[in-house]
Amino acid sequence: MIFTTLLSLLVAVVTAAASPLQPQQLEVITPRITSPTESDCWAPGSIQNVTWDTSRIPPAFVNNTGMIMLARPETTYDKNGNPRMTENLNYTNPLATRFPIGTGHQTVQIPIDTPPNNGYVIVLFGDSGNCSPKFKIRK
Ligand SMILES: *[C@@H]1O[C@H](CO)[C@@H](O)[C@H](O)[C@H]1NC(C)=O
Ligand SMILES: *[C@@H]1O[C@H](CO)[C@@H](O)[C@H](O)[C@H]1NC(C)=O
Ligand SMILES: *[C@@H]1O[C@H](CO)[C@@H](O)[C@H](O)[C@H]1NC(C)=O
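Above: the input record for the complex with 2-acetamido-2-deoxy-beta-D-glucopyranose. Below: its predicted structure, written as C-alpha cells.
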C-alpha cells in the first residue's frame, strides 16, 4: 500500500540524515496538503505553490526539512487479476528538498516533460509522508 511504501522510504530518508535519530523523531505527523486540490490542473513547466496545514506540526519539528515529490498512483492487475497498487513515485527527481516544513508552503516547478495525466498526487515528506488529492497535469 502507498503509505507503507512512503513510510519505509521516509524511514530511509530519515536514517540517511546526518543527525542521530531521537526516538520521538519517528513520530509520524501528517500535515494535510491544501494545494493542490482535486480540482487543480497544473501545466507542465508551470511554477506552483504547494501548501499544507501546519497547525498540527509540533513546535520542535518546524525547522525539520521537507521534500516534495510527484507521484501517479495506479492500480495494475497481475495475470491472475489481483489488484496491485503502484505509486509511480518519482524519487529520482524531487520537486523540492531541504525546505523547513513549518513554513507551510513551497514553490515547485512541474517538469516540462511531465506526461499529461489526471491522476497525479503531490507527496510531502517531512517527519511524515502525506499526499494531496489527485489532480491533473495537462496544458
Ligand atoms: C504560497 O502560499 C502561501 C500560503 O497561502 C503564501 O503565504 C505564499 O506567499 C505563496 N507563495 C507564492 C510564491 O505565491
Ligand atoms: C527554527 O528556526 C528559527 C529561525 O532560525 C528559530 O528562531 C527557531 O528557534 C527555530 N525553532 C526550533 C524549534 O528549532
Ligand atoms: C522523473 O521526473 C523527470 C523530470 O520530469 C523525468 O524526466 C523522469 O522520466 C521521471 N521519472 C519517472 C520514473 O517518472
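Notes for the reader.
The helical segments are 2-16.
Residues 29-137 form a domain with the Immunoglobulin-like fold (CATH 2.60.40.10).
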